[in-house]
Amino acid sequence: DMKVTQMPRYLIKRMGENVLLECGQDMSHETMYWYRQDPGLGLQLIYISYDVDSNSEGDIPKGYRVSRKKREHFSLILDSAKTNQTSVYFCASSLRDISNERLFFGHGTKLSVL
Amino acid sequence: KTQVEQSPQSLVVRQGENCVLQCNYSVTPDNHLRWFKQDTGKGLVSLTVLVHENDKTSNGRYSATLDKDAKHSTLHITATLLDDTATYICVVGDRGSALGRLHFGAGTQLIVIP
Description:
The complex is a heterodimer. Chain A is built from no helices and eleven strands. Chain A is an all-beta fold. In chain A, a hairpin with a 2-residue loop joins strand 7 (65-70) and strand 8. Chain B is an all-beta fold.
């Protein structure tokens, strides 16, 4: 069905709590991404995963970690969330060769850390 | 420093009018350029990918051009509809594989009024 699914859509957490954001895709894409989007800024890459257990830091990895144990599933974990991690988080997936291929995004998870 | 600049920041047009959105970038190398549409509260949906110097693409009422010499792209929307109200995001990829980086603009917010 060519879809990237994110759960949950909305999440409210208190500072210091742990947060788990989940992402799934049904296209057998090797590459998956986690971005955050803040007002007035372009999307910023947190982590990229090239396949199962093959993850690399993006531009803003501090305070985040990821897990990819199955090709179709990529999780973003915030251990002890901070208020400045309030944002909208987007997961995306693509084939390894992306120059002429589509990049698919989920609908986003809006996280508020109080 | 932002490597992808979009203009205008926001734009209001009447239904049926045409509009042009601009993207200037300094990303080097510039392997490809993408335009995305993002409805409020939703994920990014791919509109088009431009790869070669002087590429032109067309996708219904959306058409785009790329001038790699000038590092500039335009997105034209003809005969706008109310459903075109969204943020349009320009993204430049520095490689053709997922090993490269995607550089996101902050977007142009288009509002189409009756």
